[in-house]
Amino acid sequence: MSSTPPPPNQWRTLDKDLGRIVNVESAAQYVSRPMVGIGISLIFMVVAGLGAALFFGDGSTSYIVVAAAIFGAYMAVNIGANDVANNMGPAVGANALTMGGAIVIAALCETAGALLAGGDVVSTISKGIIDPSSVADEQIFIWAMMAALMSSALWVNLATWVGAPVSTTHSVVGGVMGAGIAAAGFAAVNWPSMGAIAASWVISPLLGGLIAAGFLAFIKHFIIYREDKIAAARAWVPVLVGIMGGVFAIYLAKKGLKKIISVDLGPALLIGVIIGAVIYVITAPLIRRQSEGLENRNKSLKVLFALPLVLSAALLSFAHGANDVANAVGPLAAIVHAESFGEFAGKVNIPLWVMVIGAFGISFGLILFGPKLIRMVGSQITKLNPMRAYCVALSAAITVIIASWLGLPVSSTHIAVGGVFGVGFFREWHHERRARNRPASAKAPKIAREERRRRKLVRRSHFMTIVAAWIITVPAAASLSAVLFLVLSAVFVA
Question: What tens digit of pLDDT does each residue of 199-217 get?
Answer without folding.
Answer: 877 888 898 899 999 999 9
